[in-house]
Automatic annotation (TrEMBL):
Keywords, sorted A to Z: ATP-binding, Ligase, Magnesium, Manganese, Metal-binding, Nucleotide-binding, Protein biosynthesis, Ribonucleoprotein, Ribosomal protein
Protein name in UniProt: Probable alpha-L-glutamate ligase
Cellular compartments per GO CC: cytoplasm; ribosome
GO biological process: SOS response; translation
Record-linked InterPro entries: ATP-grasp, ATP-grasp_RimK-type, ATP_grasp_subdomain_1, RimK, Rimk_N, Rp_bS6_RimK/Lys_biosynth_LsyX
Lineage of the species this protein comes from: Bacteria, Pseudomonadati, Myxococcota, Polyangia, Nannocystales
Organism: Nannocystis pusilla
Family named by the database record: In the C-terminal section; belongs to the RimK family.
């Protein structure tokens, strides 16, 4: 099988691990900087060109699209789709997951547990918005933020008003969410491949830090999920159309609630924490899919 990994940097851990796993399984792999691709958009012979070479002899792609390059990256993925090339995460699914508001609305419509979340436009409606959430403490979150950037905990009404006014004064779109105190600064990353959770870890925020992101100094430990947490993660990824996803979950008093579904989840933290070869699992899934034999695994997930 001939694989193209769409990534800006071949030396990144996730990219290099996917390449290593694919080559170990006997496949031919090319790392393609998707921002250096250009496209011939025709109905008769759509194709992608990279460094002057037509990428027409590709069986599957693995999109590793950065959040800041979603528009162009998904255009490249969509072009490969027009060419009949398999991708575990299609362009529309990636776009859905990158829009935090849209993805939460889609998940809510399908009954997925979420933190109580509010969205508004005018600063004249801040009091009403906070009332919808149930009042401070609340988490104010930029729609375009990643890795915990643009996420603020406001623990008083005055602090919440100040943060919301500041963001809206900069014309930044935000979500306001309940603060799930019982999670105690921890969340769960469930890594979904196909129709099952293949690895999971608990991320604990650093002392004094409510954000659990590893980039913010959080610590990760291996964890066993409950059946409800497993099914929530698989359903959330499936509803958005993702076959490879990192689903971030909080343990709340009313059960698991989904914070976010990531379409380009990093492999470094999950592999090192769980000692599971997630990259190999992804490649094996793509093999089955390209062969037209992908079915829901009958082997129960250990997570």
């Amino acid at each position: 099988m001939k694989l193209a990994i769409l990534s800006r940097d071949a030396s990144l851990y996730s990219t290099s691990r996917l390449r290593e796993a694919a080559e170990h399984r006997g496949h031919e792999v090319k790392v393609v900087d998707y921002l250096r691709c250009y496209m011939n958009i025709t109905s008769s012979r759509p194709h992608v060109v990279y460094h002057g070479e037509d990428l027409t002899d590709v069986d599957a792609i693995i999109p590793r699209i950065g959040a800041s390059n979603t528009f162009y990256g998904t255009a490249v993925v969509r072009q490969f789709e027009m060419m009949g090339v398999f991708t575990p995460n299609r362009s529309q699914a990636i776009s859905r997951s990158r829009d935090k508001l849209r993805s939460m609305q889609i998940l809510a419509a399908k009954g997925i547990g979420l933190p109580v979340t509010g969205f508004g436009h005018s600063i004249k409606d801040i009091e009403g918005l906070l009332e919808v959430i149930g009042g401070p403490p609340v988490v104010v979150k930029m729609l375009e933020g990643t890795q915990g950037i643009g996420v603020v905990l406001a623990d008083t009404p005055a602090a919440a008003r100040s943060v919301i006014e500041a963001f809206r004064g900069l014309d930044v779109n935000i979500l306001v969410q309940e603060f799930v105190k019982e999670a105690e600064g921890a969340d769960i990353r469930a890594f979904v491949v196909g129709n099952r959770v293949v690895a999971a870890m608990k991320r604990q925020g650093a002392p004094g830090e409510f954000r659990s992101n590893l980039h913010r100094g959080g610590k990760a430990t291996k964890i066993k999920l409950t059946p409800k947490e497993r099914s929530t993660a698989v359903r959330a990824a499936g509803i958005l159309g993702l076959k490879v996803a990192g689903v971030d979950i909080l343990r709340s008093r009313r059960g698991p609630v989904v914070l976010e579904v990531n379409s380009s989840p990093g492999l470094e933290g999950i592999e090192r924490t769980t000692e599971i070869d997630v990259a190999d699992t992804i490649i094996a899934y793509i093999e089955r899919s390209v062969a037209g034999a992908d079915k829901k695994s009958e082997t129960p997930s250990p997570y």
